[in-house]
Amino acid sequence: MKVVVCVEKIRGDIVSFEELKNLWEEKLSDIAGIDEICIVSEAEIKDVALQEAVYENADAILGMKLKDESLSEEFLTKYPKLKYAATFNHGFGNYDREAVNRHGVTVTNTIYGDVTVAQFAMALLLNICHDITANSNYYKKEHFDRTEELGRNPAPITPQMELYGKSLGIIGLGSIGLWMARMAAGFGMRVIANSRHPKEGKEYEFIEQMSMEEVIRNSDVISIHCPLTEATRGMINKRTISWMKDGVILINTARGDIIVEEDLIEALNSGKILAAGLDVVSGEPLKEKTEIFNCKNAYITPHMAWLTKEAVYRQVDVAVENFRRWIIPY
Questions:
Q1: Is 281 in contact with 301 (CB distance < 8 Å)?
Q2: 225 among known catalytic residues
């Protein structure tokens, strides 16, 4: 069996390609039945000629970018031995599902960053509540220049906010949403949520599941954790924002296009939305600043919630374990 692994470059070089290559080889070598392991970088796989040579006779491709043209009838006919394809993303993206079924190919995703992304979402929220960096910088750099204030502690330069007793509304109760719910519950928040498919099981008992409109109307904080689909594109818009409480906080670590950005900007500028913590924006990766960057109450980071060394290592472990479970009965 030939296994191809496509390793993308990790932003910030927190883990090198060589380190990941060695880790993949180590993990896959423990699985019986693999005769050839071919590990290529993201840059290499963009070369069409090299890609064809690498994919030739592959039984499994790990780390495939699942886009509209991926796993098409043409692709699967070209590589008839392929029986397993894994994306390293949490979601699946778009691909020809009918062709996949006809060719008997198993497709898996890799949920490796659920706790990581949830932690970042909570960090965005805590930053809005406390802005520790701004207060630290003021105390260290400016307070002692004000002689009239010496000998006493300065007042906070930003309003401070408690989360205890407030309602967190989660849109999308998958693995990331569930971790966000657990963290919020740890702060003493009431957790309410909406999911495409109501969740069952003991792990969800502390969460009040309700309709989307009820979540939006009853939340002090709204955190978005659903995938971007045609149903969710533009879901947060002028109409749904009008349902929100005045002074609500909005967190988005999912996809920028779930929000109609011009409507969010209007709500931020009017104060309808107190603040937004955004790890994603519309149209990313951006080539230039957009209007949302002018909102002082929008805290924006460059889609980095998943970028921890621990999550990158976990990606390998989860993908290998998924493949191991597939290959044993196969």
A1: no
A2: no
Active site residue: 103, 143, 217, 303, which one? 303
Q: Are 90 and 111 in contact (CB under 8 A)?
A: yes
Q: Out of 90, 190, 225, 255, pick the active-site residue.
A: 255
Please answer whether residues 209 and 199 qualify as being in contact, where contact means their C-beta atoms are separated by less than 8 angstroms.
yes
Compute the distance between CA of residue 300 and CA of residue 292 in angstroms, rounded to an integer: 9
CB of 128 within 8 A of CB of 249? yes
Between 154 and 103, where is the model more confident?
103
Q: Exactly one of 284, 288, 324, 325 is catalytic; which is it?
A: 284
Residue 58, pLDDT above cutoff 80: yes
How many angstroms from the chain centroid is the CA of residue 304? 8
> The whole model's pTM is what?
0.91
Annotation says 208 is catalytic: no
Task: Kindly state the average pLDDT of the residues 243-261.
Answer: 98
Based on the residue annotation, tell me whether 97 is a catalytic residue of this protein: no
| Bridge-based pairing state of the strands 106-108 and 167-171 | unpaired
* Per-residue pLDDT at 94: 74
Examine the pLDDT at 312 and tell me if it is beyond 70: yes
